[in-house]
Write a structure and sequence with these properties.
The chain is built from 14 helices and 31 strands. By secondary structure, the protein is an alpha+beta fold. The protein has three domains: 208 residues, BirA Bifunctional Protein, domain 2 (2-Layer Sandwich), CATH 3.30.930.10; 129 residues, YbaK/aminoacyl-tRNA synthetase-associated domain (YbaK protein), CATH 3.90.960; 98 residues, Anticodon-binding domain (Rossmann fold), CATH 3.40.50. The structure holds adenosine-5'-triphosphate and magnesium ion (MG). Its EC number is 6.1.1.15.
Length: 568
Protein backbone atom coordinates (compact mmCIF):
# COMPACT_ATOMS: atom_id res chain seq x y z
CA UNK A 1 0.00 0.00 0.00
CA UNK A 2 1.23 3.49 -0.82
CA UNK A 3 1.09 5.88 2.08
CA UNK A 4 0.14 8.67 -0.33
CA UNK A 5 -3.13 6.82 -0.98
CA UNK A 6 -3.77 5.44 2.51
CA UNK A 7 -6.53 7.01 4.55
CA UNK A 8 -4.34 7.53 7.61
CA UNK A 9 -5.12 10.73 9.50
CA UNK A 10 -2.33 10.73 12.13
CA UNK A 11 -2.17 13.33 14.90
CA UNK A 12 0.97 14.92 16.31
CA UNK A 13 -0.49 15.76 19.69
CA UNK A 14 -2.27 13.63 22.26
CA UNK A 15 -6.02 14.18 21.90
CA UNK A 16 -7.61 15.75 24.98
CA UNK A 17 -10.39 13.15 25.08
CA UNK A 18 -7.96 10.28 25.80
CA UNK A 19 -6.56 9.29 29.21
CA UNK A 20 -4.83 5.99 28.62
CA UNK A 21 -1.99 5.29 26.25
CA UNK A 22 -3.84 2.84 24.00
CA UNK A 23 -6.70 5.29 23.45
CA UNK A 24 -4.27 8.12 22.67
CA UNK A 25 -2.26 6.00 20.27
CA UNK A 26 -5.26 4.52 18.48
CA UNK A 27 -6.44 8.07 17.73
CA UNK A 28 -2.98 9.44 16.95
CA UNK A 29 -2.09 6.50 14.71
CA UNK A 30 -5.26 7.08 12.69
CA UNK A 31 -6.72 3.69 13.61
CA UNK A 32 -10.13 4.97 14.59
CA UNK A 33 -12.27 8.02 15.18
CA UNK A 34 -15.01 8.61 17.72
CA UNK A 35 -18.55 8.72 16.41
CA UNK A 36 -20.31 9.23 19.74
CA UNK A 37 -19.57 8.31 23.35
CA UNK A 38 -18.17 4.76 23.34
CA UNK A 39 -18.89 4.31 19.62
CA UNK A 40 -16.10 4.34 17.04
CA UNK A 41 -15.41 4.09 13.34
CA UNK A 42 -12.46 1.87 12.56
CA UNK A 43 -10.26 3.33 9.85
CA UNK A 44 -8.25 1.16 7.44
CA UNK A 45 -5.22 0.72 9.72
CA UNK A 46 -7.32 -0.13 12.78
CA UNK A 47 -9.57 -2.44 10.83
CA UNK A 48 -6.60 -4.40 9.51
CA UNK A 49 -5.53 -5.14 13.08
CA UNK A 50 -9.06 -6.19 13.98
CA UNK A 51 -9.22 -8.53 10.99
CA UNK A 52 -5.90 -10.11 11.95
CA UNK A 53 -7.12 -10.83 15.45
CA UNK A 54 -10.37 -12.20 14.06
CA UNK A 55 -8.41 -14.49 11.78
CA UNK A 56 -6.36 -15.86 14.66
CA UNK A 57 -9.56 -16.41 16.66
CA UNK A 58 -11.18 -18.23 13.74
CA UNK A 59 -8.16 -20.46 13.26
CA UNK A 60 -8.13 -21.68 16.84
CA UNK A 61 -11.90 -21.90 17.15
CA UNK A 62 -12.11 -23.96 13.95
CA UNK A 63 -9.22 -26.14 15.14
CA UNK A 64 -11.19 -26.96 18.26
CA UNK A 65 -14.17 -27.94 16.10
CA UNK A 66 -16.30 -24.93 16.89
CA UNK A 67 -18.47 -23.87 13.95
CA UNK A 68 -18.89 -20.28 12.83
CA UNK A 69 -22.33 -18.81 12.23
CA UNK A 70 -23.86 -15.36 12.43
CA UNK A 71 -26.70 -14.51 14.80
CA UNK A 72 -29.02 -11.49 14.78
CA UNK A 73 -28.09 -8.25 16.54
CA UNK A 74 -31.76 -7.28 16.80
CA UNK A 75 -33.43 -9.67 19.21
CA UNK A 76 -37.01 -10.05 20.39
CA UNK A 77 -37.84 -9.41 24.04
CA UNK A 78 -39.58 -12.78 24.17
CA UNK A 79 -36.42 -14.86 24.40
CA UNK A 80 -35.01 -12.54 27.07
CA UNK A 81 -38.20 -12.86 29.06
CA UNK A 82 -38.01 -16.65 28.70
CA UNK A 83 -34.51 -16.61 30.20
CA UNK A 84 -35.59 -14.08 32.85
CA UNK A 85 -32.86 -11.62 31.87
CA UNK A 86 -34.99 -8.90 30.23
CA UNK A 87 -35.01 -7.00 33.53
CA UNK A 88 -31.74 -8.33 34.90
CA UNK A 89 -29.66 -6.66 32.19
CA UNK A 90 -31.34 -3.38 33.09
CA UNK A 91 -30.19 -0.17 31.40
CA UNK A 92 -27.13 -1.89 29.92
CA UNK A 93 -29.43 -3.18 27.20
CA UNK A 94 -30.71 -0.88 24.44
CA UNK A 95 -34.41 -1.64 24.09
CA UNK A 96 -36.81 -0.33 21.46
CA UNK A 97 -40.03 -1.06 19.63
CA UNK A 98 -40.52 -1.80 15.98
CA UNK A 99 -43.28 -0.19 13.87
CA UNK A 100 -45.77 -2.76 15.14
CA UNK A 101 -44.86 -1.87 18.72
CA UNK A 102 -43.12 -5.18 19.32
CA UNK A 103 -40.28 -5.03 21.82
CA UNK A 104 -36.69 -5.63 20.76
CA UNK A 105 -33.18 -5.13 22.06
CA UNK A 106 -29.76 -4.85 20.51
CA UNK A 107 -27.84 -7.95 21.56
CA UNK A 108 -25.42 -7.36 24.44
CA UNK A 109 -24.59 -11.11 24.28
CA UNK A 110 -26.17 -14.13 22.58
CA UNK A 111 -26.94 -16.93 25.07
CA UNK A 112 -30.67 -16.41 24.49
CA UNK A 113 -30.48 -16.44 20.71
CA UNK A 114 -28.38 -19.61 20.68
CA UNK A 115 -30.63 -21.40 23.17
CA UNK A 116 -33.68 -20.32 21.17
CA UNK A 117 -32.04 -21.56 17.98
CA UNK A 118 -31.23 -25.03 19.26
CA UNK A 119 -34.36 -25.62 21.28
CA UNK A 120 -36.18 -26.17 18.02
CA UNK A 121 -33.41 -27.99 16.19
CA UNK A 122 -31.49 -30.26 18.55
CA UNK A 123 -33.57 -33.38 19.10
CA UNK A 124 -31.42 -36.20 20.31
CA UNK A 125 -28.23 -36.85 22.24
CA UNK A 126 -26.80 -37.81 18.85
CA UNK A 127 -26.95 -34.15 17.76
CA UNK A 128 -24.59 -33.15 20.58
CA UNK A 129 -21.99 -31.92 21.48
CA UNK A 130 -21.89 -28.71 19.46
CA UNK A 131 -19.91 -25.53 19.76
CA UNK A 132 -21.25 -22.56 17.80
CA UNK A 133 -19.41 -19.27 17.50
CA UNK A 134 -19.61 -15.92 15.79
CA UNK A 135 -17.67 -12.69 15.52
CA UNK A 136 -19.99 -9.76 15.74
CA UNK A 137 -20.81 -6.33 17.08
CA UNK A 138 -22.31 -6.24 20.57
CA UNK A 139 -24.17 -3.29 22.01
CA UNK A 140 -24.10 -2.44 25.71
CA UNK A 141 -25.16 0.96 26.97
CA UNK A 142 -22.29 1.10 29.47
CA UNK A 143 -22.78 3.53 32.31
CA UNK A 144 -19.21 4.79 31.96
CA UNK A 145 -17.85 4.25 28.47
CA UNK A 146 -14.16 5.08 28.60
CA UNK A 147 -10.61 4.41 27.53
CA UNK A 148 -11.66 4.29 23.88
CA UNK A 149 -12.50 0.80 22.68
CA UNK A 150 -11.53 -0.69 26.03
CA UNK A 151 -15.02 0.01 27.37
CA UNK A 152 -17.15 0.91 24.40
CA UNK A 153 -20.92 0.93 23.99
CA UNK A 154 -20.55 -0.84 20.64
CA UNK A 155 -17.72 -3.37 20.36
CA UNK A 156 -16.73 -6.49 18.49
CA UNK A 157 -16.82 -9.80 20.33
CA UNK A 158 -16.00 -13.35 19.41
CA UNK A 159 -18.60 -15.34 21.30
CA UNK A 160 -18.99 -19.10 21.41
CA UNK A 161 -21.57 -21.39 22.99
CA UNK A 162 -21.02 -25.04 23.80
CA UNK A 163 -23.90 -27.51 24.02
CA UNK A 164 -23.42 -30.86 25.73
CA UNK A 165 -25.49 -33.71 27.05
CA UNK A 166 -23.94 -33.67 30.53
CA UNK A 167 -21.47 -31.96 32.85
CA UNK A 168 -18.66 -34.25 31.87
CA UNK A 169 -19.12 -33.08 28.30
CA UNK A 170 -19.25 -29.47 29.46
CA UNK A 171 -15.95 -29.91 31.33
CA UNK A 172 -14.35 -31.13 28.11
CA UNK A 173 -15.82 -28.32 26.00
CA UNK A 174 -14.75 -25.77 28.60
CA UNK A 175 -11.21 -27.12 28.69
CA UNK A 176 -11.04 -27.05 24.89
CA UNK A 177 -12.00 -23.38 24.93
CA UNK A 178 -9.58 -22.63 27.78
CA UNK A 179 -6.78 -24.16 25.71
CA UNK A 180 -7.89 -22.40 22.52
CA UNK A 181 -7.94 -19.06 24.34
CA UNK A 182 -4.39 -19.57 25.59
CA UNK A 183 -3.29 -20.26 22.03
CA UNK A 184 -5.19 -17.26 20.66
CA UNK A 185 -3.64 -14.78 23.09
CA UNK A 186 -0.24 -16.34 22.65
CA UNK A 187 -0.41 -16.10 18.87
CA UNK A 188 -1.56 -12.48 19.13
CA UNK A 189 1.68 -11.81 21.04
CA UNK A 190 -0.17 -10.99 24.24
CA UNK A 191 0.74 -12.07 27.72
CA UNK A 192 -2.60 -13.03 29.20
CA UNK A 193 -3.24 -14.98 32.39
CA UNK A 194 -6.32 -17.00 33.30
CA UNK A 195 -7.86 -16.07 36.65
CA UNK A 196 -10.88 -17.32 38.57
CA UNK A 197 -13.81 -15.03 37.89
CA UNK A 198 -17.22 -14.06 39.14
CA UNK A 199 -20.04 -15.32 36.94
CA UNK A 200 -22.08 -12.12 37.22
CA UNK A 201 -25.24 -11.79 35.13
CA UNK A 202 -24.39 -14.93 33.16
CA UNK A 203 -25.07 -17.29 36.03
CA UNK A 204 -23.45 -20.68 36.16
CA UNK A 205 -20.61 -22.15 38.20
CA UNK A 206 -16.99 -22.19 36.98
CA UNK A 207 -15.65 -19.21 35.18
CA UNK A 208 -12.26 -17.85 34.17
CA UNK A 209 -11.22 -14.50 32.86
CA UNK A 210 -8.16 -13.95 30.69
CA UNK A 211 -6.36 -10.87 31.87
CA UNK A 212 -3.69 -8.72 30.32
CA UNK A 213 -1.76 -7.04 33.10
CA UNK A 214 -1.63 -3.28 32.66
CA UNK A 215 -1.84 -0.28 34.97
CA UNK A 216 -4.80 1.04 33.02
CA UNK A 217 -6.76 -2.18 33.65
CA UNK A 218 -10.12 -1.73 35.32
CA UNK A 219 -9.98 -5.10 37.05
CA UNK A 220 -7.92 -6.04 40.09
CA UNK A 221 -6.45 -9.51 40.28
CA UNK A 222 -5.08 -11.29 43.33
CA UNK A 223 -2.08 -13.55 42.61
CA UNK A 224 -0.46 -15.87 45.11
CA UNK A 225 3.29 -15.44 45.54
CA UNK A 226 3.71 -19.18 46.12
CA UNK A 227 1.16 -21.23 44.16
CA UNK A 228 -0.89 -20.77 40.99
CA UNK A 229 -3.90 -19.17 42.69
CA UNK A 230 -5.12 -16.17 40.70
CA UNK A 231 -8.57 -14.65 41.04
CA UNK A 232 -10.40 -11.48 40.20
CA UNK A 233 -10.75 -9.44 43.40
CA UNK A 234 -14.49 -9.52 42.68
CA UNK A 235 -14.37 -13.08 43.94
CA UNK A 236 -10.93 -13.67 45.50
CA UNK A 237 -10.78 -14.93 49.07
CA UNK A 238 -7.95 -15.17 51.59
CA UNK A 239 -7.08 -16.83 54.87
CA UNK A 240 -8.00 -13.76 56.85
CA UNK A 241 -8.93 -14.80 60.35
CA UNK A 242 -12.05 -13.96 62.30
CA UNK A 243 -11.77 -10.98 64.54
CA UNK A 244 -11.77 -11.52 68.28
CA UNK A 245 -13.54 -8.89 70.25
CA UNK A 246 -12.74 -9.20 73.92
CA UNK A 247 -15.24 -6.82 75.48
CA UNK A 248 -18.35 -8.46 76.98
CA UNK A 249 -20.02 -5.43 78.52
CA UNK A 250 -23.53 -4.11 77.88
CA UNK A 251 -24.11 -2.02 74.77
CA UNK A 252 -23.78 1.64 75.58
CA UNK A 253 -24.73 4.74 73.61
CA UNK A 254 -21.89 7.25 73.22
CA UNK A 255 -21.88 10.83 71.99
CA UNK A 256 -19.88 11.25 68.78
CA UNK A 257 -20.71 14.74 67.50
CA UNK A 258 -20.14 15.08 63.75
CA UNK A 259 -17.99 11.94 63.72
CA UNK A 260 -19.14 9.92 60.72
CA UNK A 261 -16.35 7.96 59.12
CA UNK A 262 -14.33 5.06 60.46
CA UNK A 263 -11.10 7.08 60.39
CA UNK A 264 -12.73 9.99 62.25
CA UNK A 265 -14.01 7.51 64.84
CA UNK A 266 -10.58 5.91 65.17
CA UNK A 267 -9.08 9.25 66.02
CA UNK A 268 -11.90 10.46 68.25
CA UNK A 269 -12.31 7.28 70.32
CA UNK A 270 -8.71 6.10 70.04
CA UNK A 271 -9.93 2.66 69.06
CA UNK A 272 -8.50 0.76 66.06
CA UNK A 273 -10.71 0.29 62.99
CA UNK A 274 -10.62 -3.48 63.53
CA UNK A 275 -12.79 -2.98 66.62
CA UNK A 276 -15.47 -1.23 64.64
CA UNK A 277 -18.08 -2.42 62.25
CA UNK A 278 -18.58 -0.66 58.97
CA UNK A 279 -22.31 -0.62 58.22
CA UNK A 280 -23.07 -0.11 54.54
CA UNK A 281 -26.62 0.73 53.52
CA UNK A 282 -27.53 -0.58 50.09
CA UNK A 283 -30.68 -0.96 48.06
CA UNK A 284 -30.98 -4.31 46.29
CA UNK A 285 -33.82 -4.49 43.75
CA UNK A 286 -35.59 -1.82 45.78
CA UNK A 287 -35.12 -3.54 49.13
CA UNK A 288 -33.05 -1.90 51.92
CA UNK A 289 -30.18 -4.09 53.15
CA UNK A 290 -27.56 -3.37 55.77
CA UNK A 291 -24.21 -5.04 55.17
CA UNK A 292 -21.60 -5.23 57.91
CA UNK A 293 -17.87 -5.62 57.46
CA UNK A 294 -15.01 -4.98 59.83
CA UNK A 295 -13.97 -1.33 60.10
CA UNK A 296 -10.68 -2.25 58.45
CA UNK A 297 -12.30 -4.03 55.49
CA UNK A 298 -14.06 -2.96 52.33
CA UNK A 299 -17.45 -4.32 51.37
CA UNK A 300 -17.33 -6.32 48.12
CA UNK A 301 -20.54 -5.40 46.34
CA UNK A 302 -20.26 -8.28 43.87
CA UNK A 303 -20.16 -10.83 46.69
CA UNK A 304 -23.10 -9.13 48.35
CA UNK A 305 -25.06 -9.05 45.08
CA UNK A 306 -24.38 -12.76 44.58
CA UNK A 307 -25.41 -13.61 48.13
CA UNK A 308 -28.66 -11.65 47.75
CA UNK A 309 -29.16 -12.94 44.20
CA UNK A 310 -30.06 -9.39 43.32
CA UNK A 311 -30.34 -7.98 39.82
CA UNK A 312 -29.37 -4.49 40.78
CA UNK A 313 -27.55 -3.29 43.87
CA UNK A 314 -26.59 0.28 44.68
CA UNK A 315 -25.55 2.40 47.64
CA UNK A 316 -28.47 4.03 49.45
CA UNK A 317 -28.94 7.72 48.69
CA UNK A 318 -28.85 10.22 51.56
CA UNK A 319 -32.62 10.65 51.67
CA UNK A 320 -33.16 6.88 51.71
CA UNK A 321 -31.36 6.55 55.05
CA UNK A 322 -34.45 8.16 56.59
CA UNK A 323 -37.09 6.80 54.21
CA UNK A 324 -36.01 3.16 53.95
CA UNK A 325 -33.83 2.57 57.01
CA UNK A 326 -35.31 5.00 59.53
CA UNK A 327 -31.72 6.09 60.19
CA UNK A 328 -29.28 8.91 59.44
CA UNK A 329 -26.39 8.92 56.94
CA UNK A 330 -23.09 8.61 58.79
CA UNK A 331 -24.69 7.05 61.89
CA UNK A 332 -26.34 3.91 60.55
CA UNK A 333 -25.99 0.67 62.54
CA UNK A 334 -27.74 -2.70 62.97
CA UNK A 335 -29.53 -2.02 66.27
CA UNK A 336 -33.31 -1.53 66.25
CA UNK A 337 -33.47 -1.60 62.48
CA UNK A 338 -36.97 -2.93 61.98
CA UNK A 339 -37.63 -4.78 58.75
CA UNK A 340 -34.15 -4.31 57.35
CA UNK A 341 -32.22 -7.45 56.53
CA UNK A 342 -28.74 -7.43 58.09
CA UNK A 343 -25.96 -9.53 56.59
CA UNK A 344 -22.40 -9.61 57.88
CA UNK A 345 -18.98 -10.64 56.71
CA UNK A 346 -17.80 -13.96 58.12
CA UNK A 347 -14.89 -12.32 59.94
CA UNK A 348 -17.45 -10.75 62.26
CA UNK A 349 -18.84 -14.10 63.44
CA UNK A 350 -17.55 -13.71 66.99
CA UNK A 351 -18.12 -10.04 67.25
CA UNK A 352 -18.78 -8.55 70.60
CA UNK A 353 -17.76 -5.21 71.96
CA UNK A 354 -17.92 -3.58 68.53
CA UNK A 355 -18.65 0.06 67.80
CA UNK A 356 -21.53 0.83 65.43
CA UNK A 357 -23.74 3.75 64.46
CA UNK A 358 -26.81 4.33 66.66
CA UNK A 359 -29.22 5.37 63.86
CA UNK A 360 -29.36 8.77 65.50
CA UNK A 361 -27.43 11.88 64.55
CA UNK A 362 -24.17 12.26 66.51
CA UNK A 363 -24.44 8.93 68.38
CA UNK A 364 -22.83 5.51 68.22
CA UNK A 365 -23.09 2.36 70.34
CA UNK A 366 -20.11 0.62 71.85
CA UNK A 367 -19.80 -2.93 73.28
CA UNK A 368 -22.24 -4.22 70.70
CA UNK A 369 -22.68 -7.97 70.21
CA UNK A 370 -24.54 -9.79 67.47
CA UNK A 371 -27.20 -12.27 68.54
CA UNK A 372 -27.67 -10.32 71.76
CA UNK A 373 -28.18 -6.76 70.54
CA UNK A 374 -29.33 -7.49 67.00
CA UNK A 375 -29.87 -10.37 64.59
CA UNK A 376 -27.72 -11.16 61.58
CA UNK A 377 -29.38 -13.09 58.76
CA UNK A 378 -26.09 -14.68 57.65
CA UNK A 379 -22.35 -14.47 58.11
CA UNK A 380 -20.77 -14.93 54.72
CA UNK A 381 -17.79 -13.75 52.70
CA UNK A 382 -18.55 -10.11 51.88
CA UNK A 383 -15.15 -8.41 51.97
CA UNK A 384 -12.56 -7.67 49.31
CA UNK A 385 -9.14 -9.20 49.83
CA UNK A 386 -6.12 -6.96 50.21
CA UNK A 387 -2.49 -7.38 49.15
CA UNK A 388 -0.35 -9.22 51.71
CA UNK A 389 -3.10 -11.56 52.96
CA UNK A 390 -2.50 -15.32 53.03
CA UNK A 391 -3.45 -17.37 49.99
CA UNK A 392 -6.70 -19.35 50.41
CA UNK A 393 -5.35 -22.23 48.32
CA UNK A 394 -1.85 -23.03 49.56
CA UNK A 395 -2.03 -21.12 52.84
CA UNK A 396 1.65 -20.24 52.44
CA UNK A 397 2.05 -17.53 49.85
CA UNK A 398 0.85 -13.95 50.13
CA UNK A 399 -1.59 -12.31 47.77
CA UNK A 400 -0.30 -9.60 45.41
CA UNK A 401 -2.83 -7.39 43.71
CA UNK A 402 -2.28 -6.21 40.15
CA UNK A 403 -4.40 -4.33 37.62
CA UNK A 404 -5.58 -6.17 34.56
CA UNK A 405 -7.66 -5.81 31.41
CA UNK A 406 -10.22 -8.56 30.86
CA UNK A 407 -9.77 -9.67 27.27
CA UNK A 408 -11.65 -12.94 27.49
CA UNK A 409 -14.16 -14.68 29.71
CA UNK A 410 -15.34 -18.28 29.77
CA UNK A 411 -18.30 -19.63 31.75
CA UNK A 412 -19.78 -22.98 32.61
CA UNK A 413 -23.43 -22.03 32.33
CA UNK A 414 -24.88 -25.44 33.10
CA UNK A 415 -28.62 -25.78 32.47
CA UNK A 416 -29.78 -22.32 33.55
CA UNK A 417 -30.69 -21.19 30.04
CA UNK A 418 -31.85 -24.52 28.70
CA UNK A 419 -34.17 -25.02 31.67
CA UNK A 420 -35.60 -21.51 31.60
CA UNK A 421 -36.05 -21.65 27.84
CA UNK A 422 -36.96 -25.30 27.44
CA UNK A 423 -34.00 -26.45 25.34
CA UNK A 424 -33.99 -30.21 25.78
CA UNK A 425 -32.65 -33.25 24.00
CA UNK A 426 -33.82 -36.85 24.23
CA UNK A 427 -31.33 -39.15 25.97
CA UNK A 428 -30.67 -42.81 25.08
CA UNK A 429 -33.81 -43.84 26.93
CA UNK A 430 -35.92 -41.30 25.11
CA UNK A 431 -36.17 -39.07 28.17
CA UNK A 432 -36.03 -35.27 27.77
CA UNK A 433 -32.97 -33.68 29.43
CA UNK A 434 -31.85 -30.06 29.48
CA UNK A 435 -28.82 -29.22 27.31
CA UNK A 436 -25.72 -28.39 29.37
CA UNK A 437 -24.19 -25.15 28.13
CA UNK A 438 -21.04 -23.05 28.28
CA UNK A 439 -20.33 -19.59 26.91
CA UNK A 440 -17.02 -18.10 25.83
CA UNK A 441 -16.19 -14.50 24.84
CA UNK A 442 -13.20 -12.56 23.57
CA UNK A 443 -13.38 -8.78 23.30
CA UNK A 444 -11.74 -8.33 19.90
CA UNK A 445 -11.67 -4.53 19.95
CA UNK A 446 -10.65 -4.45 23.62
CA UNK A 447 -7.84 -6.83 22.73
CA UNK A 448 -6.51 -4.27 20.22
CA UNK A 449 -6.28 -1.71 23.04
CA UNK A 450 -4.76 -4.25 25.45
CA UNK A 451 -2.09 -5.16 22.89
CA UNK A 452 -1.12 -1.49 22.63
CA UNK A 453 -1.09 -1.09 26.43
CA UNK A 454 1.41 -3.93 26.55
CA UNK A 455 3.48 -2.86 23.54
CA UNK A 456 4.33 0.82 23.23
CA UNK A 457 7.01 3.39 23.93
CA UNK A 458 7.26 7.18 23.83
CA UNK A 459 7.28 7.14 20.02
CA UNK A 460 4.16 5.07 19.53
CA UNK A 461 2.89 1.53 19.06
CA UNK A 462 5.12 -1.54 18.80
CA UNK A 463 2.83 -4.09 17.16
CA UNK A 464 3.42 -7.75 17.91
CA UNK A 465 4.27 -9.25 14.52
CA UNK A 466 1.13 -11.35 14.18
CA UNK A 467 -1.37 -8.52 14.54
CA UNK A 468 0.51 -5.59 12.99
CA UNK A 469 -1.55 -3.78 10.35
CA UNK A 470 1.42 -4.04 7.97
CA UNK A 471 4.60 -6.02 8.47
CA UNK A 472 7.13 -3.86 6.66
CA UNK A 473 7.35 -0.15 5.93
CA UNK A 474 9.73 1.21 3.32
CA UNK A 475 10.94 4.79 3.67
CA UNK A 476 12.58 6.16 0.53
CA UNK A 477 14.58 9.21 1.62
CA UNK A 478 15.43 12.08 -0.71
CA UNK A 479 14.46 12.63 -4.33
CA UNK A 480 17.19 10.68 -6.08
CA UNK A 481 15.81 8.68 -8.97
CA UNK A 482 17.95 5.73 -7.93
CA UNK A 483 16.39 5.79 -4.46
CA UNK A 484 12.88 5.95 -5.87
CA UNK A 485 13.50 3.18 -8.33
CA UNK A 486 15.20 0.87 -5.86
CA UNK A 487 12.52 1.48 -3.24
CA UNK A 488 9.83 0.65 -5.76
CA UNK A 489 11.66 -2.50 -6.75
CA UNK A 490 12.06 -3.63 -3.14
CA UNK A 491 8.40 -2.81 -2.48
CA UNK A 492 7.21 -4.89 -5.43
CA UNK A 493 9.52 -7.79 -4.62
CA UNK A 494 8.54 -7.99 -0.98
CA UNK A 495 4.86 -7.81 -1.88
CA UNK A 496 5.34 -10.55 -4.43
CA UNK A 497 6.84 -12.70 -1.70
CA UNK A 498 3.64 -12.30 0.28
CA UNK A 499 4.66 -9.64 2.79
CA UNK A 500 2.30 -6.87 3.77
CA UNK A 501 4.22 -3.77 2.84
CA UNK A 502 3.71 -0.03 3.14
CA UNK A 503 5.82 2.40 1.17
CA UNK A 504 5.95 5.98 2.35
CA UNK A 505 5.88 7.69 -1.03
CA UNK A 506 4.56 10.96 0.41
CA UNK A 507 6.40 14.20 -0.30
CA UNK A 508 7.25 14.63 3.37
CA UNK A 509 10.41 15.40 5.28
CA UNK A 510 12.40 12.43 6.53
CA UNK A 511 11.54 13.37 10.14
CA UNK A 512 7.81 13.15 9.46
CA UNK A 513 8.20 9.76 7.81
CA UNK A 514 10.29 8.41 10.66
CA UNK A 515 7.84 9.69 13.27
CA UNK A 516 4.79 8.27 11.51
CA UNK A 517 6.41 4.89 10.99
CA UNK A 518 7.20 4.68 14.70
CA UNK A 519 3.77 5.96 15.69
CA UNK A 520 1.90 3.35 13.66
CA UNK A 521 4.30 0.71 14.92
CA UNK A 522 5.10 -1.35 11.82
CA UNK A 523 7.46 -4.13 13.01
CA UNK A 524 10.17 -3.73 10.34
CA UNK A 525 11.29 -0.47 8.78
CA UNK A 526 13.56 -0.35 5.77
CA UNK A 527 15.14 3.00 5.03
CA UNK A 528 16.42 3.50 1.50
CA UNK A 529 18.89 6.38 0.99
CA UNK A 530 21.41 7.12 -1.77
CA UNK A 531 24.43 6.61 0.46
CA UNK A 532 23.43 3.17 1.73
CA UNK A 533 22.48 2.11 -1.79
CA UNK A 534 25.98 2.92 -2.95
CA UNK A 535 27.20 0.44 -0.36
CA UNK A 536 24.65 -2.12 -1.46
CA UNK A 537 22.74 -2.08 1.82
CA UNK A 538 19.47 -0.80 3.32
CA UNK A 539 19.13 0.41 6.85
CA UNK A 540 16.62 -1.57 8.86
CA UNK A 541 15.02 -1.09 12.24
CA UNK A 542 12.90 -3.55 14.17
CA UNK A 543 10.25 -1.64 16.08
CA UNK A 544 10.05 -4.22 18.87
CA UNK A 545 13.36 -3.05 20.35
CA UNK A 546 14.21 -0.13 18.04
CA UNK A 547 17.30 -2.07 16.99
CA UNK A 548 19.04 -0.76 13.89
CA UNK A 549 20.98 -2.88 11.44
CA UNK A 550 22.24 -2.86 7.89
CA UNK A 551 20.99 -5.53 5.52
CA UNK A 552 22.77 -6.32 2.28
CA UNK A 553 20.41 -5.90 -0.64
CA UNK A 554 21.22 -9.38 -1.91
CA UNK A 555 20.38 -10.85 1.44
CA UNK A 556 17.15 -8.91 1.98
CA UNK A 557 14.57 -11.66 1.31
CA UNK A 558 16.32 -14.13 3.60
CA UNK A 559 16.88 -11.60 6.35
CA UNK A 560 13.24 -10.44 6.31
CA UNK A 561 12.14 -14.01 6.67
CA UNK A 562 14.48 -14.48 9.60
CA UNK A 563 13.20 -11.35 11.33
CA UNK A 564 9.63 -12.60 11.12
CA UNK A 565 10.23 -15.96 12.73
CA UNK A 566 7.44 -15.34 15.17
CA UNK A 567 4.76 -15.57 12.52
CA UNK A 568 3.65 -19.12 11.95
P1 LIG B 1 -16.63 -6.07 31.99
O1 LIG B 1 -16.58 -6.77 33.33
O2 LIG B 1 -15.32 -5.54 31.55
O3 LIG B 1 -17.76 -5.11 31.86
P2 LIG B 1 -18.08 -8.31 31.11
O4 LIG B 1 -17.59 -9.30 32.10
O5 LIG B 1 -19.39 -7.70 31.27
O6 LIG B 1 -16.97 -7.19 30.93
P3 LIG B 1 -18.41 -10.39 29.18
O7 LIG B 1 -19.87 -10.47 29.15
O8 LIG B 1 -17.62 -11.40 29.90
O9 LIG B 1 -17.97 -8.93 29.65
O10 LIG B 1 -17.93 -10.23 27.66
C1 LIG B 1 -16.87 -10.97 27.05
C2 LIG B 1 -15.73 -10.06 26.65
O11 LIG B 1 -16.17 -8.94 25.89
C3 LIG B 1 -15.01 -9.45 27.84
O12 LIG B 1 -14.08 -10.34 28.38
C4 LIG B 1 -14.36 -8.22 27.22
O13 LIG B 1 -13.14 -8.57 26.62
C5 LIG B 1 -15.35 -7.81 26.14
N1 LIG B 1 -16.17 -6.66 26.58
C6 LIG B 1 -17.18 -6.67 27.46
N2 LIG B 1 -17.71 -5.44 27.60
C7 LIG B 1 -17.01 -4.63 26.76
C8 LIG B 1 -17.09 -3.25 26.42
N3 LIG B 1 -17.99 -2.47 26.98
N4 LIG B 1 -16.22 -2.76 25.52
C9 LIG B 1 -15.31 -3.57 24.94
N5 LIG B 1 -15.19 -4.87 25.20
C10 LIG B 1 -16.03 -5.41 26.10
MG1 LIG C 1 -16.64 -10.83 31.85
Amino acid sequence: MRMSKLYLPTLKEDPAEADVVSHKLMLRAGMMRKHSSGIYSYLPLGYRVIKKIEKICRKHMDNSEAQELLLPIMQTSKIWKDSKRWDKFGPLMIKFNDRKAREYCLGPTHEEVVTDLVRDEVRSYKDLPLNLYQIQTKVRDEIRPRFGVMRGREFIMKDAYSLDIDYEGLDKSYQAMYDAYERIFDECGLEAVAVEADTGAMGGKDSHEFMVLADSGEDEIAFCSHCDYAANVERATSKKTEIDFEVEAEAEKIHTPGIKTISELEEYLEVPAAKMMKAVAVVADGEPILALVSGEDELNEIKLTNYLQANELRAAEDKEFGELFNSVAGFIGPLDLDEVRVVADQRLKNMSGAIVGANEKDYHFKNVKSGRDFEVEAFTDLRSVRGGERCPKCDQGKLNIKDGIEVGHIFKLGTKYSENMGANYLDENGKAQPIVMGSYGIGITRLVAAAIEQNNDQYGIKWPQAIAPYQIIILPLGNDDSVQEKSEEIYQNLKAEGWEVLIDDRKERAGVKFNDSELIGVPLRLTIGSRSLENGVVEAMTRENNEKMEIELDNLPAKVKELFTKIS
